[in-house]
User: Fold uroporphyrinogen-III C-methyltransferase from Desulfosarcina ovata subsp. ovata.
Amino acid sequence: MHNHPEAGKVYLVGAGPGDPGLITVRGVDCIARADVVVYDYLASPALLAHARPDAELIYVGKKGGDHTLPQEGINALIVEKARNGAVVARLKGGDPFIFGRGGEEAEVLIAAGIAFEVIPGVTAAIGASAYAGIPLTHRDFTSDVAFVTGHEDPTKTTSSVDWKALATGIGTLVFFMGVKNLPLIAANLVENGRPADTPVAVIRWGTTPHQETVTGTLDSIVEMVRKAGIKAPAIIIVGGVVKLRESMQWFEKRPLLGQRIVVTRARQQASNLVQRLTEAGAECVQCPTIKVVPPADGAPLDRAIADLDQYDWVVFTSVNGVGYFFRRLFEKGLDVRALGHLKTACIGPATAAHLRSFGLGSDIIPTSYRAESVVEAFVATPVAGLKILLPRAKEARSVLPVELTRMGATVDEVTAYETLQAQSDTDALIKRLDAGTIDMVTFTSSSTVTNFHRMLPPDRAHQLMAGVSVASIGPITSQTARDLGYTVTIEAEDFTIDGLVKAILHARG
Assistant:
C-alpha cells in the first residue's frame, strides 16, 4: 500500500457493547496514542478518559435514524485527519467488522492510501447475551449461531436475508438493530417454518447499568416489547438457549443495577469507590469536587522533616497525609529510616495500610475512625512532655491538636497537603439533576460536601437535590451536609470506603 509521506494512521477500534471494561488492552492503547478520537453513540464515554489531554475528540453520532455526521462525512473526516499527519482512533461500538461499517471505512482508507489497523471488539451479540445469561451455543440446544442485521440498507430494493434458511437451518439467531422491525422479523420466521413458541429475548443497552431484558416467544414478544417500552439500541436473540436465562441470569441481579450515583471524591482517589459501586451495578457519574495538592507554603513541613529527631510521635489522620508527607521526605533526600525512632498513630485502617506500604507499622489505630477516637486511644498512653508531629490537611478540625495539648504534649501541626475545588463539568451535572437522572450523591469528606454545594446555583441547590439520596462516609461529613441544608439518607457505620459501600448496599437491599 502506498502512503502519502505526510499521512498519519487510522485505528478502527472496537469499543465493545457498552461496558467500558470490555474494551481490549490494544484498544485502550490506540486511544491513548491517538491525536484524534472519532467516536459514535454506542462507544462508552468512559473510554475517552484514556485519551491524551491534548487529543481532539470528535463525536459523530451514529444513533439509529439520527446521525450527527453521515457515514460519507465520517469517511472524509478520518481521511482528512490522517492526511494531515494525525494518528486517528475511530472508536466504534461493538466490533468494527460486525455491522459496524468498518469494512466500508477500511475501503475508503485503502483508496486514499492511508495506513490503518483493525482492533476487534466484543460484539453486542456476545456481550449482551452473556450479560443477560444466555449462552449462544449449548450442547443440549444448538451448535450453530447466525448474526443477522435487523435493519438492512434502506436503498436496497430486495432483502438479502434468506428467511427460509434462517428459520429452519440455524439454532440461535441474533438480530442487530432490529427492534423497530421486530414484528416483521417474528412474522417472517414463523411464516418460514420456525415454531411460534420459539423463545425470544430482546436486550436493550446490553452490558450497561441500564440493561433491560424482555423474554417471550415469537408469537408474544412483539406485544411484550411494546408494553415494556423497549427501544433501540437493542438486540434480539431467537432460539432455545433463551430458556437458560431463567437460571443463568446474573448481571441484572446486581443490587445497584440502574442506580445513577455521583462520586464527588478527588479523581485520583475515586477508583476504589467507583469500582465497588460499578461492580454492584451502578452507573457512576464522576464529578470530583476536590483536588489534592501539595501545600502552597511547604516551609513548615520542610522544617518538621529536618527536625524529625526532635519528635516522639507522628500522627497521620488520612491517606493523603501519609502520601504527601513521604513524598516530601523523599524529595528531601531522606527515607523511612528517618522515622525509625518515632512511634506512629493512624486514624484508621486505610491510613495505617498506606503507612505500612512505606515500611512502617502503626502503634495506635483507634476503633472508630475520627479525631475524637484518636484522642481516646491516647488516654492510655502518657504523652505529657512529649513532642508530637501532626502532618495533615490545611484547615483540618482542631480537636486532635487541642486535646493532645491538653494532655501535656507539644503538638506541631503542619500542612502536608491542601484540598482545592476541582474543575468539573458543572453544566452536565446540573442538567442531569434537573432531568431527574441522578439517584444518589456520595460524600467522602466535608470538603467534598462544601465544594459540591458551591457547584450548584445558590437559589436552586435544594430544588435540584430534591429526591436525590445523600450517602455520607461518617458523622462529621454528615453534619457538614446537614449544615448546608441537605438530608443525609445513608451514613456509613465504619468511616471508610468499604463502610460507605456497605451502607449503600444495605439501604438499597
Summary: The radius of gyration is 29 Å. The chain has a mean pLDDT of 90.
